[in-house]
Amino acid sequence: MKTAFIFSGQGAQYKGMGKELCDNFKCADDIFGRADKALGFSIKEICFEDEEKLNKTEYTQPSILTMSTAALSVLNENGIKADYVAGLSLGEYSAYVASGAFNFDETVELVRKRGRFMTEAVPEGVGAMYAILGLDRETVENTCEEFKSQGFVAPANYNAPGQIVIAGEAEIAQKTADALKEKGAKMAVKLNVSGPFHTALLKPASDKLAVELDKITISDMSVPVVTNLTGAEVPSKDDIIPTLIKQVMSPVKWEDTIKYLYDKGVDTFIEIGPGKTLCGFVKRTVKGVKIFNVEDMKSLEKTLKGMEEIK
Predict the structure, then answer these.
(1) Pairwise CA distance, residues 75 & 146, whole Å
(2) What is the pLDDT of residues 7-41, one digit of tens each?
């Protein structure tokens, strides 16, 4: 039996996330306290009460990292450990914390800056992202290529078979999404995000992030991290910074990440953080595996019971 912890990405946040875990576990509450101290404001207040701030990228990113790390601390306290870790986009930072490569207190400050840099890179309304359901990679990639002469558009997330997100300049992204519907996409849904994340348009954010990443303390990984950038393991701690610099402006290869973990013998996936989006992606990508999530008391109890039965 091999277990992978997979960490939620941006978009999964909701008001009240992490509250039950904080109310029931000191280790979870301590993580929120450390975040408040590092940031100089209350992440707990944002997560539990301030939905407007929670949905602003600069606050969303440290909030999800904090809630995910709090949930991780509860799992660890209950003796559940991972053989591999990975995270969707922002979730990869939670994975580096889980692996021991990153210090949480430094990372929560770093991802706040990452969120701000991503927002500043492309002014709101200039870019857009669309989830395309029911088409293969080749059709999506070729259609983006067809529209590139009119402006920038490209695949941004390979989430699962038949679920790809495209991103680019707003007008061209919309035209491409419409064309993909004509080519047989079941749905082309505009996402509620502030910019065309994980494309070359985020190069300014990547450049600013590189400066901040250079200040981070990096330790050896005690658990292998599988990165979205390649869909494979990060070879060593020396590869972490170059990977994260590219990651913010490169497509998220999540389907490849899950397939890699499956090929490595992972038969149990635990999504850690708000929501169950990644559980759904795993179900669509590989068969015959156990899938759990931890975000509140009910999901925690179900996961602990399920892991006990597997033993």
Answers:
(1) 47
(2) 999 989 999 999 999 999 999 999 999 999 999 99
